[in-house]
Amino acid sequence: MRADAARNLDAILQAGARLLDDDPSTSFTTLAAEAGVSRNLVHRRFPDREALRDAVFRAKLDAIDVVLQDARLEIAPVEVALHRFVEGIIAVIRRYPINPDQMRSDAESYTRMLDQRERVATFIGRATDEGLIRSDLPDGVAPALLQKIIVIVTFQLPDHDPARAADIAVDTLLKGIGQN
What domains are there in the chain, each with its CATH number? Predict the structure, then answer.
């Protein structure tokens, strides 16, 4: 793909993620204007909103796969892997802010998302086994808290770069919000 074509596709996918999250019935005219491309270009690439939405899902999931690989959840020191993961995920969510719950409409995307979440849950289990996370929490609570903290920090601190936002998210996960 030519560089300009890749930039246009990326602009369409990012605009699609933002707009379709707010309004799944967003017109291609609005989307094209937001992406800075022609309506015809959007239609040539995507026959309908569902095709665009599914492409946004794939782009987001592909980006998350890269984050999971780069974080080295299975082998890097737990604190390092946790920070790498959180920093990377914050950047992905900001790039493709479409709500993951929308992936339920596409079985393949939803299955991929659940597999990714399982990898994170397995990593959280490793962090628990190594004593970084409390072991007395009910099953599923720590991964759910991590997910919620990431979303809150991502959108409540839009002026923070992903590394600084990750510092806050990881610190909050590991130490809570108390004075101690």
Answer: 1-47 (1.10.10), 56-175 (1.10.357.10)
Q: Which residue has the tokens 């959007």?
A: 42
Residue 36 sits at φ, ψ, to 5 deg, of: 75, 30
| Other C-beta atoms lying within 10 Å of the C-beta of residue 88 | 20
Length of the chain: 180
Q: Cα 90 to the chain's mean position, in Å?
A: 6
For helices 49-71 and 78-95, the axis angle rounded to 10 degrees is 160
As a whole number of angstroms, the distance between CA 35 and CA 42 comes to: 9
Task: Taking residues 72-94, report their average pLDDT.
Answer: 97
- Are 87 and 163 in contact by the 8 Å Cβ rule? The answer is yes
Of 179, 166, 174, 180, the closest CA to residue 71 belongs to 166
DSSP symbols for 119-159? HHHHHHHHHHHTTSS-SSSPTTHHHHHHHHHHHHHHHH-TT
How does pLDDT run across 142-155, given as a tens digit for each residue?
999 999 999 999 99
- What is the residue-wise DSSP string for 26-48? --HHHHHHHHTS-HHHHHHH-SS
Whether residue 68 contacts residue 119, with contact meaning beta carbons closer than 8 Å, is answered with: yes
Asked if residue 55 lies in contact with residue 16, where contact means CB atoms within 8 angstroms, the answer is yes
What's the rounded Cα separation, in Å, for the pair 21 and 118? Answer: 24
